[in-house]
Each structure stands twice: as C-alpha cells, then as structure tokens.
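Re: [help] complex structure
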Amino acid sequence: MITTTLTLLLLSLGFCKGGLQENYIDDFEETEEVEVFAQPSKYGSLWPLPQKVQISEVSFKLSSSSFKIVDAKQSSAGASCSLLQDAYRRYFEYMFGSGKRQQLNKGRRGGPSEVTELQVWITSPDSECDGYPSVSSDESYELTVTDQPYAVLKAPKVWGALHGLETFSQLVYEDQYGAKSINSTSINDFPRFAHRGILLDTSRHFLPIKVILANLEVMAWNKINVFHWHIVDDPSFPYLSRTFPQLSQKGAFQPYTHVYTPADVKMVIEFARLRGIRVVPEFDTPGHTQSWGKGQPDLLTPCYSGSKPSGTFGPVNPILNTTYEFMTQFFKEISTVFPDAYVHLGGDEVDFSCWKSNPDIQKFMEQQGFGQDYKKLESFYIQKLLDIVTTTKKGYMIWQEVFDNGVKLKPDTVVHVWIGGGSNEEMSRVTDAGYTTILSAPWYLDYISYAQDWQKYYKVEPLSFNGTEAQKKLVIGGEACLWGEYVDATNLTPRLWPRASAVAERLWSAKDVTDINDAYNRLSAHRCRMVDRGIPAQPLFYGFCPHEYKGI
Amino acid sequence: MITTTLTLLLLSLGFCKGGLQENYIDDFEETEEVEVFAQPSKYGSLWPLPQKVQISEVSFKLSSSSFKIVDAKQSSAGASCSLLQDAYRRYFEYMFGSGKRQQLNKGRRGGPSEVTELQVWITSPDSECDGYPSVSSDESYELTVTDQPYAVLKAPKVWGALHGLETFSQLVYEDQYGAKSINSTSINDFPRFAHRGILLDTSRHFLPIKVILANLEVMAWNKINVFHWHIVDDPSFPYLSRTFPQLSQKGAFQPYTHVYTPADVKMVIEFARLRGIRVVPEFDTPGHTQSWGKGQPDLLTPCYSGSKPSGTFGPVNPILNTTYEFMTQFFKEISTVFPDAYVHLGGDEVDFSCWKSNPDIQKFMEQQGFGQDYKKLESFYIQKLLDIVTTTKKGYMIWQEVFDNGVKLKPDTVVHVWIGGGSNEEMSRVTDAGYTTILSAPWYLDYISYAQDWQKYYKVEPLSFNGTEAQKKLVIGGEACLWGEYVDATNLTPRLWPRASAVAERLWSAKDVTDINDAYNRLSAHRCRMVDRGIPAQPLFYGFCPHEYKGI
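Output below.
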C-alpha cells in the first residue's frame, strides 16, 4: 500500500484561464449563470454525489485480468440473481472494456497494492432480485474500498447494490501510465428523494426502442429511478393495445414501423427493472387524446359549429356509458401490461370549447346541475376514471389541474406539479391538502437556451415552498420532462444529457450539495464518462474530453 | 409513357390537423413563427428550390439494374474526371443504395416507361475538373428529365454538374409500390449569391475529422459552397503548423489526439473540393489568440498589474518586429496549405485593456502619435498584417470591426458583417465604401431557442438594407455561424441541420421564394432525406420520417 498525494490533473478538461471574449449578438439572451472553469473536484467524477463519502490519498491498482465482482458469501442474492450477474458484467465492461477511460482523480503510480475483488453483499433476507422497484424500495448502499484485499459493497436490496456498482465504477480512474486505479474510499449512500424521474414523450415523435433503451442505461448511470413514459398524446398513439388494436392501427404515425408492440413494452420494462428503474406509463385523458379518436369511434366529443357537427373532435366524451366501458377495459389491460404500482392518468389542459359547442353535452350539464361550470364536467369524468383505475388495484399520478379542480382523490395519489408560475404556492397547497407530490415545473428540459441551463436546474430546491415539516415530507421527488415537439432520435440524447444529470443530483444528493463550481467540475468529468461509454452527452461549455464522441 | 395525376401523399409527414395544446411554462419565450402543418409541395422535396423548375405529371421509372449516370459524348469532362466519376457513384448510392428512400411527390404506378440514363454534359471547354471552386465559379446547370430515353444534365463547369446531380437525386422518389420514379422535369438553375458558407469552430471544441467530413457532405446536399474553418481561437490551437509545430504542441487541448495534421487538412480540402466547396481558413488576430501564446513566446502582449507584469497576456503584441516576422512566415505557410484565394484574418473584438496596461505599448503609442486611441494601434497592426498577407497573393476576409476602424483595405477585401444590432446600416456603410460583403449577423446558429427558429433565418432578406443597385451587387452572400461554446461532436450535426438549410435556400433560391408553408413542406421532406442518408438532422416540429434515425 503506497500513500500518495493526490495529483489532480486537468486531463479531462482543458480550460483556459484567460477571459473568453465571445462574439455577441444583440438579441443574446443574458443569463445569470456563473461562469465556471474546470478544476478537479476532491470528489473526482462522482455524480450524483453520495450522501457520505470519504476518499483517502491511498490508491490501489485494478487489473482486468484478476479483478472480479462476486457475490459475498453472506449475501442473500447469489448466482441465481441474474439482475446482479448482468450488472457485474455491465460494470466490468465499463471499467475495463474499452481501456480508454480516464478520470480526474488520479493518484501517483503505486506499487503492487491491488484490489482484486469487489464483494457484493445483499444484507436483507429478501434481496428483491426478481421484483420490481417501487417508490418505497430501499436504494441505500455502503461501499468500502480497501485492499483487504476485498472491496465490499453492502446493500439491503439489489436496488442499492446497482447504485453502488455505478458508484464503484465512477471511482475507478487511470493513472498517468494508464493503469486502472482506485483510491481507498468509504461511502454511505442513499437518495434524498424516492421518486427521481425522466419523462420522455413518444407521441409527438416516435422514439425507436433502441433510443429508449440507451437512455434507460444513462438514467441508471445518473441514479434516476423512474421512466415516466408519456406514451400517447394528440399527435400519435404508438401503444399497440391487445384489447383495442385499432388505436395504434389508426392512431400511430405508421401502424407497423411506429408502434410499441407488447413485446417491445415488455422489453423496456425488463431492461428498466434490471437497472432499478420503474416504468410509469401515462395515458392522458380527457384532453390530449386526438390520436385516440381515430381508432375508437365515439370516444371523443364531436364539436359543433352552430347546430351542426363540424367534423372535428374535442376531449373524451364524458357523457356516454360507452366511454367508461372502454376505459374500464383499456385500463384493465394497462394494469396487467405495466407492473408498476402507479399509472399516470394525465388530466391536464382540458379545452372546454368543444364541450361547450355540443348540444348533448349542454343538455347533460343541465341535467346534472353543473350550470356553466365545465370544470364540474371535467371532474365528473375524472372521478369516474379514478374509480375505474382503482378497481385495477393501481395507484395513480395526475397532473396538478385534477387537484386544482377539486376532484376527490385517493390519499395515495401523487399530484404532479408542472405549471411554471406559482409552483411553490401549488406545492404548498397540494401538501397542505395532504397529498404526495412530485415537482417538474422548473425542469422542463424541452425549453432550451444559449446558456449553461443545467445550472438553473441544479439550483432548484424542491422544498423551498412555505410549509410544515410534515408537508415537506410529502414531496417524494421530481421529474425532468423532455416533451417531444422538437425532439426525436436525432437529437434527444445530447439534449437530455447532461442537462438531466443536474436534476438527478438535486434529487439524490444531500440538500447542502449546492457548490456550483464543484458541480461543474464533477459534471464535466461525468459527461466525458458518458461520452466514453458511447453516449453523445453534450458539453457544458468549451473544453474537451480525452476521447471525443466517435459517432457522426 | 403514362400520364398520371400526381398523387401527393403525406407519407413523410404525419401531422394532426387538430390543435396541439402543449404544456406551457411561464418563462416560455414567445416567438413569432408561423405554425405550419405539412402538406405536400408541388415541388416535392427540392431544397434549395431551383431558380426555374417545371415538374409535369408524367412519370417514369428508374431501375437500379439498368440506370446509369454517364458522361455525354460531347462533354469536356470524361472518364478521367474523377471528381465527376466519384459524384456519379455517390449519387447512385443515394438513389438506389439503401432502397429505403421515399419522397412526397409520388406518381401513380406507370407502365414500362423508363429513364435509363442521366447524361452529364460539361459544355465549357475547361470543365475545371481538377481545379478548385472559387467565388467566381460558374455553378449553373440545366436538367431535363424525359424518357428520350436519356435525362440530360448540362453545365458549363463541373460545379454546376455537382449541384445538378444533387437536384436529380432529390427528384427521385418511390411510388406506392416502392418503385423508383421520377417525373418529367425541366430545371434551369443557378445560385442567387456566390458565397454560401457555414462557419464551424474547432477551437472551443475539437471536432474530429469524421465530423467535419460528414458535415461537408451535408453542405453539398444543401448547395453550400464555403466551409469557413474557424480553426483556432483562444481556447485551443489544433492546427498543426509545419513551420511552428509548437503552436499546437503547446496550444492544442491535446497535442496528438486533438490536432489537425497537414494530412488531415489536405483531406478536408480535397473532400470539400470534390463537392464544390471552398475551404476558407480563419486565423483570427490580434485578439482571440490566447492559445497562440503558449507555443510562441513573446507573440502576445504581457499585461501589467501596476508596474509589474501580471503573468497574463493580451492580444498579439503589435510593437515588436518579431511579431511581424512570425506572421510573415506563418501566413506564407497558410497560403500554401490552403489553396483558396481567400484567407479570413479575423480582427474582431480586440480588448484594449492589456495594451493599455503595458508601459512599452504606452511608449510606442506616444512615439507614433496615437494619443490614447488604441484603435489606431489596432489599425497599425492590421495594416501591417494585411500587407504581409498581400505578399502571399491571397485575398482576405475580415470581420466588420476592421472596416469600422478605418483600416485601409484592398479593393477586393470581403467585409464580414456579424454584429446583430444595426447590421442593415453596416451593410449600407460597407457597400457604400465600395467593399464586397457577406452577411452573418442574423445567422448565428449557436443561439438556440424553443422555437422553429429556422423560420427566422429563412425570412432574412440580405438585400433589405438601404443602398443603390450597385451597392447591393457587392453583397456576395452570407454564412451561417455555429460557434463552439456549447457544440462538439455529440450535438453539432443535429443542431446544424436543418437549421442551416434555411440559410442555404435563402442564399441559393430566387428572392421571391418566401412562402413559409411551402418551405416547411419541402424542408420537412428534405430533413427526412438527410436522416435517410444517415445524418441526424433534427425535426422541425412534431411528426415523423418513414425511417427514423438509426443511431442512438
């Protein structure tokens, strides 16, 4: 064992100290971002930063010819746990596969001192190896790197072990001779928030399965644990329903090439499970449903122009029994296809103009005594829908309007706050009413600008609203949303990463992890690691990676 | 020959007619863009739109087993013209290679009527096959598609033939049975502006050669004919100079992996030449030179803090003879490495604070009688630099500040207008002074926003400034600039395309080609073609391509 002084080199980041005078343009959107220049962080390239981490100056070597990741003898998950065995292979490949990785945190060349094994020890009797992650999953882990000669990763469940493997891989770096090295390290880690999600939208553009899987992989690197699959919307209905195949047959952009078959969906769910990621599908109604109407006649409300149907359609028709019969069958299928305990039911942005134009709806409003208050009609619909979904034994998430409109919600409902103005007040109201909530309002990643906007996302404090401790406990996390108007397979991945990484750290790390300079340094290295693992994560600012992206 | 009615199908574009209600956010930047929905254009997927084009409803088939692109007997460029032979292979591959292409403009299935040959006829005695394109190159061509049975592409020079081949390939589509088809067509085409450029910045991030070549390829598809290579700047000096190898040895991000060797540069230039593209290198001085100073001691001005050097450096030191000796040797090399008749000398954004701090500079100012007017010192430097470059027999381009500061310029100088505010007034002033000019101010593609910003670029009219006809003739074109602060190999290509395509059409097509809806329709199809040819050109808005991008 050789004690060394950490020699932190600027290998991954080549920034000039001199001021950069950039060409400007008059309509340049001035931002408040701090201009930071890369320095090595004492935490190297760790991202998101673990809750407790001690890295000493003692360094060891790792050899691809001898290093092994193995189940600890005492572990409750052994060779039969393919989730872990798959993860071992994956992380071995990340650490030794390309032989190209370099990291910031570099020790001097040491002697023969070597870490030959990482022992993975699942401590709880039920490892949950064959289960699905949930909002209450234990994701904690402890990692101890010494040359005893075993490094040890302890976790109550496989979910924590997966995170620990990622963290271990982030600790490995190459010294100045290219030798794989790791410093003596002690980490105790767990997430600050249980729900750390990314919303992808496969309706405005179809995303090939390959793109979804690649991004699930990157989510795991960032300890993101929820894939919110906004699978259908107005523009297209790519979900191939066994019960109602006409929905995608008529509603997809193309019924054979631009659909997600049951096998596709199953693959996405299993790929995600193996990485500790929940798949929460969203089937948004009664608005955002234009594409549903193509394959399901009479589902949508016919709009009227004067006394005649105009030929266009509005939201789901809430006054027909057939609507609820359809929803019952449809969500029965959804509840079996998607194993997660929650389904997202949408409920946002319902446009009342079509309902108002329709004489049958008007008559119904009168019968029900709703007057001219179409929010009551919306609530009428949602209430019936929630009752239907409740019979499938699923919990539900809904966009904030459903709460705002006073719909009666089950106590375990998750209210999703997304409207940019007044989101703090909304968080106060939702939690004051006793509902669990997640935050997306400040994290709409579809909005882009000429700036280091990751800093804006990073600086968000989800609990900054006015409320009691009890209220704050109801905030279970948040989601970065990448809506699809301007995003498809050509540009999704670089636009998502590393911008979503900023959200990932905010939701994982301790509240006081707010040093923007340290974050810049670690995130720069983390993004180069994503590039090195084959993902086109875009740069934060000028500079370079040791190995630039190899694609076009 | 079968006369058919054109059946224009919405195959490449699947837009809903219903309104899209999108989630909004309070700080959403409202834009003025027209929301357009895809309809097939009567011009199919042609981009940029040719000057004169007639497409009839008569359609022919093309068979990959019999179709040939051949030199016309009368052509002045035959089998020995490898530029054309290479282009024939390239375009045959685009048309028949993947067997996947589909286009908007579809004729009904016809009979055996077939186009079996495209004859390429270079009409001028000197085809310029082995030359380099220049600002005065003849790029015109005429294309006649009939089943006589030969389609004919006539062009005075190879440059027009290259454009004509691209246009021909854009006319080919698949009918509803997948059969390659083309309609009877007559096109007479030439560019509105001679200088149609794209600036890429390889200093703020290093761009691997592969990325540069891929984008040169796409430039050719868009009839862009100038690659403005902003090769060095403050952050790094990747140009490997034979004369001064220390410049990149010390000034590149990494001296072996992040440099352009003489062989690389030669390859870029030849790859560009074969596609009719000029390579205009920019070596910007006296500002933007931090990276130069690392490998060339005493080139930059030492800044002072009080009476002592602060250890930092400012712009090129204009008071030393060694500076001009260096520039003489350096630009002598540049003049031989880069065959283009022009070199871009920069001259923008010179910060005077360091010069002001330096006692030797102050003394020199006094000796020269410059008073406190550091613009005079800047002009002193630039004047000497221009004289040096003139001896290399090169013309020069400069950023507008050099003109603004009253430096004496050669009559053939190209003044590059880039400052966003007041660019119309600047265009008036520059042309009133009799200088040739190109416009970039409205086309800074590094600035991004949540919008269809291609429309903003498209709506620019470069001759909208106040001036005489003679003044307007001095505007030889423009350039789209993609500065590199936030752009590297991971995101450059989707960010550049199809946004730069909007600029490409503005600079090529007739002044009255301004129908934004028709442009949307053609550009949507053009971008799907770029995707089909393997380039991740990003979407304009929601919708789909028949074959989505296959990369990650």
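The first strand of chain B starts at residue 2 and ends at 3.
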